[in-house]
Amino acid sequence: MDILSLFVTLPVITILVLVFAKGLKQARQIAMVGSFIQLGMAINLVFAYFRERAINDGIMVFTKDLVWFKEFNIHYNIGVDGISVALILLTAIVVLAGVFISWKMEELPKEFFISLIVLSTGVYGFFISIDLFTMFVFYEIAVIPMYLLIGIWGSGPKEYSAMKLTLMLMGASAVLLVGILGIYFNSNADGGPLTFNILEIAQVNIPLEAQKLFFPLTFIGFAVIGALFPFHTWSPDGHASAPTAVSMLHAGVLMKLGGYGVFRVAMFLLPAGAMHWSWFFIILSAIGVIYGAFAAIKQTDLKYINAYSSVSHLGMVMFALLMLNKTAWNGAILQSLSHGFMTALFFALIGMIYGRTHTRDITKLGGLLKVIPFISVIYVIAGLASLGLPGFSGFVAEMNIFVGAFQHDNMFYRVATIISVSAIVVTAVYILRVVGTMLMGPVKNDAYLELPGATWYEKAGIFLLLIPIVGIGVAPLWLSDMIMASLQPFIQGVL
Amino acid sequence: MNFSNFLLMRHEILLLVITMVLLIAEIFIHKDKKSSIVHLAIFLFGIHTAIGFFPVEENSLFGGMFHTNAMIHFFKNILNVGVLILLLQSADWLNEKIVGENRGSEFFILLFSSLLGMYFMISAGDFLMFYIGLELSTLPVAALAAYETNKRISSEAGIKLILSAGLASGVSLFGISMLYATSGSIYFDSIAEVITSSNLTILGMLLFFAGLAFKISLVPFHFWTADVYEGAPISVASYLSVISKGAAVFILMILLFTVLKPLMHVWENLVYVVAIATMFIGNLFALRQQNMKRFLAFSSIAQAGFILLGLITGTQLGTATIVYFVMIYIFSNLAAFGVVQAISLQTGKENMDDYEGLYRTNPNLSLVMMLALFSLAGIPPVAGFFGKFFLFTAAASKGYYLLVFLAVVNVTISLYYYLLVIRAMFLRKSDHAIPYFKNKLYMRLGLIMTVIGILVLGLYSPLYDYIYQLSSVFN
C-alpha cells in the first residue's frame, strides 16, 4: 500500500473496527487511536515530501495511477504537492482535536465517531485526488455525513440547519458536476483522449468559449462550500447548530475544500475563464470579506460570531486566489491553514464555555477570565491570532495576501483591496468586543463561580491546535517554501 | 425445434415449465403444509435464475419474430435477479396473508406469466411479438394489483391499472398500425430499412411512444402510478416500479436506437421535453407525500425522467449507461420497497411518520433504507451515484448541458425528500417508534442481496465495461 492510499484506507479500517465497539469508552478510544495514527502519518508525510521533492521534480509526488472505469478513462489517480500536504496535516490535527473535544459524547457515540471519520475520509481523499471524478466522489462523501452529524447531535433548530446545509452543498456539487463534465468533454481539444486527469487537462488548450461557460459553474460549485457571498447562508446556521467537534471540522477543514477546489480545478484547468470572470468574483469575495466582518459585529451568539468571521476570512482566501499572483496565492493557502487551526480552536473553546455555562449568548456571560482562566486566556490568544497580530499565523497570511493584492496597479484592484483590508479593523472590533464583554468585567451569574476548569482531554485538543497557530506565526518559512514551490505550475498555467 | 433453439429460448421455456409445475404442484400439497408452495416457487425460480447466467449466442427464431443476443440475455438475467429478490421479500407476506386462502400458486402463475411476457417483449423481432409480450406482461399484473380482495383500495388499483394499461396498449397498437401502413412490414429489420420521416410515420411513432410511456410512467402518462402503487400489495407495487418499468425502458431503447433511428431528429426533441417534465413533476409531487408507497411511486417517476437522459443520446454510451442505471435502480428500489414491506407486514404501518425513531429500535433496517435512499438520490460511494453520473455523462457527450443542469437541479430536489425519510428514521425520537422485530430468513436474504448490489455494483468497474461491450449490438 502506498503512502497516500493509507490516508483513505486507515479511516475505513477505523470505521470497520468502530462498528464492533461497545459504548462510549471503546468508541472514543478506537477513534482516538485511529486519528492519532493518522496524525503520525501526516507528519511523516511532510518529512517524506521534503525528501521526495529533492529527488523528484514532478508537479505531484507519490503518484499512483490505477484504471477504474476504462471506458470513461476514469482513474484512481492520486498524488500530492506542497499545498495538499499542508492541508492533509491540517485535517489530521483538527480531526484528532475533534475526537478529544468529543470525549463525553453520550448519545450514540459509535455512530458519532463513525460519521466523523467518514467525513475525514472524504476530506483526505479529496486532497490526494488528481482525477476529477475521484475528487468529486470524495467531495460528496465528505459532505453527506454532515446531515447526520448536525441533525442527530446538534442543538437549536438542528433539522432545519442540517437540511439547509446539505441541500446547499449538494446543490453546489450538482452545479459542479456540470462544470466537471464540461471540462471532461473539452479535454480532447488538442486531439488527445477524453480524460479526468487534472495534470493532463492542464496541458490542453480548452477553447475560450468553453472556458467562459464552465468556469463560473466550477467556481461556484466549489465556492459555495468555501462560503462565498451570497452562497454563504448555510454556514452560520450550520455552525450554530452543529455539535462542537463538527463545527471544528466543518469550519476548520471542510470549508477549505472550497478554496482548494477553486484553485486546483477551476483556476488551474480553466485559466482563460478565470481571467475573464475574475472581476466578478473579486467583487463577490470583497463583499463577503466586509459583509462577514460587519455581520459578526451584530451577533450575540458566540457561534454566529465565529461563523460570520469565517465567511469574512474565507472571503479573503477567495479574494487572494483571484488576485492571480504568487504572493497572494501563498497568502491564500496560508490563510486557509491559519483559519483552519484558529477557527477550530475557537469552536472548541466555545464548546467548552457552552458546556459549562449552557449559554452562548455573550450578553449573559461575563468575567469568565476570573472563573475559568485557562480557557479564557486561550480564547484571547485565538482572538489575537484571528485579528492578525504578528507572531501568529493570521498575520503571515494576511500580510502575504495584501502585499500580493497591492501589486496590481489597476484602480479596480486597488479599491477592492482597500475595502478588503479595512475588514481587518472590523475584525478587531468584534473580537475585542467579545473579549471585553465575555471575559472581562464582573461575573454576571453566581452559578458561574463554580465552573470547573479544563480537563486533560480538553487541554490536549487545545494544545494540538495552538501549537501550529504559533508555529506558523513564528516560523512560516518552511511552510511558505513548501507552498511556493508547488505554486510554480499554477504560475505557468494561469499567468 | 432443435436443441440449440431450445437454448436460445431457455428463459422462456424454463419459466413456462416452472409455471406449469407450480400449477400442478398445488394439487399434491397437503393442506397443513400450504406454505411449501412458496418454498417450491422460490427454489425453482432460483434455479431458473442460475441457469440463465450461462452464455447464449446471438440468433433469431420463427423467421425473425424472436430475437436474442448477449445484451438481451443479460437484461433478462437482471430481471430474473430482481424477481428473485422480490420473491424472497414477498415470501412472508404470501405465507401469512395469501397462502391460507388457497391463492398461493395463482400469485406465482400470474407473476411468472407477466415476466414471461416481458421476456417476449424485449426479445421481440417484430411488432406482433412485441404486442403479445406487452399484453402478456400487463394483464396479469392488473390481477395481482387487485390481489388483496378484502381491501377496496386494492380492487381500485386493479381497475385503474387495467383501464390505463388497456388504453395505453390500444394507443400503442394504433401507432404500430400507422408504422405498418407506411413501411409495409411489421418486422423491425425491414421497417428500419424503409422508414422515412413522413407525417404519418411520426404520428405513429408518437402514439407508440405514448403507449410505452404509460408503462414507464413518464409525464404526462403517469397519473395511474401513485394510486396503483398505493392500493396494490407492496410486492406488486415493487414489481411495477422496478421489473415492469425496467423492461419497458429496455424495449423502448431498443426500438428507438434501431428501428426508429432515422427519426432521431424528431424523438430526441420529444425525449428532451418529456425528460424535463417527468423529472420536475415526479420530484415536486414526491415532496409532500406521506405514504411511503406513494412516495416511492413519485420517486420512481422522477427516476424514469433521469433514464431519459441516456435515451436521448442514441449511442452505445447511452445504451450502456441506461442498462447500468436500470440495473442499479432495480436493486436500490427493491431495497427501499423491501424495508417498507417488512415494516408493513410486522406493524401494518406505511406512513413516513411511523418511521420516526426507527434507527434506535431497528438499526439494521434503517441502515438498509438509508443505503437504498442514498443510492436513489445518487450519493457516493453507493451504486446510484455511478449510475446517475454516467447517465449525465452520456447526455453531456451530446452537448445537452442545459438538460444535465436541469437534471442536477432535480437531483438536489430529490435529495430533500429522500432526506425526509432519513430525518424521520435517524434524527427524530419517538415514544411510539416501531418496536424491534426480527425478520424471517427469506426477507433477510432478500434485503442482504439488495445491499450487496447497492454496495458492489457501482464500485466494481469491470461490470460497466462488460455492459458497454454488450451495448455495441444496438448501434
Provide structural commentary:
The complex is a heterodimer of chains A (495) and B (475). Chain A has 495 residues and is mainly α. Chain A has 21 helices and two strands. Chain A has one domain (5-494). Helix content of chain A is 75%, strand content 3%. In chain A, a hairpin with a 4-residue loop joins strand 1 (61-69) and strand 2. The radius of gyration of chain A is 21 Å and the shape is globular. The mean pLDDT of chain A is 87. Chain B has helices at 3-8, 10-28, 36-52, 70-98, 104-123, 127-145, 152-183, 188-194, 199-216, 223-231, 234-259, 264-286, 292-311, 316-347, 358-361, 363-377, 383-397, 401-427, 441-459, 461-470; strands at residues 59-61, 66-68. Chain B contains 20 helices and two strands. Chain B has one domain (3-474). The model of chain B has no long low-confidence stretch (mean pLDDT 89). With 475 residues, chain B is an all-alpha fold.
